[in-house]
UniProtKB/TrEMBL annotation:
It is found in: Membrane. Keywords: Membrane, Transmembrane, Transmembrane helix. Residues 7-117 form the EamA domain. This is WAT1-related protein. The chain crosses the membrane at residues 7-28, 34-56, 68-92, 112-133. Pfam families: EamA. One of its GO terms (cellular component) is membrane. It comes from Prunus avium (Cherry). InterPro entries: EamA_dom, EmrE-like, WAT1-related. The keyword rRNA-binding does not apply.
């Protein structure tokens, strides 16, 4: 067979996940707020990973534009932070065993929502482009033919209709 290092790495990561879930559940049982816990967790991860990134990626890092930075920020805020918040709130109300079993469903949920949103986004984009382009082509054809899409207004009939409507409106009465 091949090397056993990848298998050992996966087992080690699963042990770390299980330990993190047990520590999280113990902290929640002692009364720690899940939002504060997530903040501390994210801050510890950032403090641990930032020096490693600076040491190992300093020479190969490309310049970061403001748009890319904003996209990374929104992805990290909406993606992992909200998922971890929801997970920790759920862990508060359930057991650590259920939390350990459900942690493996996070990639499946992420994939499902990515496909769902990309499909819905594609459908909405196609529908809006079709309606805009179809409307413009129909308008251009009507302009070329000299026909108008709207019904022409007949001012005499409209004025008579407005006078009838004004005549039917009674004076407002105040109830004291």
């Amino acid at each position: 067979m091949g090397s056993t290092k990848p298998y050992l790495a996966v087992i080690f990561i699963q042990i770390i996940y299980a330990g993190m879930i047990l520590l999280s559940k113990a902290a929640f049982n002692r009364g720690m707020n899940s939002y504060v816990f997530v903040f501390y967790r994210q801050m510890a991860g950032a403090l641990f990973m930032s020096p490693l990134a600076m040491i190992f990626e300093r020479k190969s890092a490309t310049p970061l534009s403001v748009v890319t930075f904003c996209k990374i920020f929104m992805l990290s805020f909406l993606g992992i932070t909200l998922a971890i918040n929801a997970y920790c709130i759920a862990l508060t109300y359930t057991s650590a065993a259920l939390g350990a079993a459900s942690i493996n469903c996070l990639p499946v949920g992420t994939f499902f929502f990515a496909v769902l949103l990309s499909v819905l986004g594609g459908i909405l984009l196609a529908a809006s482009l079709y309606s805009v382009l179809w409307g413009k082509s129909k308008e251009q054809k009507s302009m070329e033919n000299g026909t108008c899409l709207s019904v022409p207004v007949q001012p005499e009939k409209e004025r008579a209709h407005l006078k009838e409507a004004e005549a039917t409106i009674a004076e407002p009465t105040l109830f004291v």
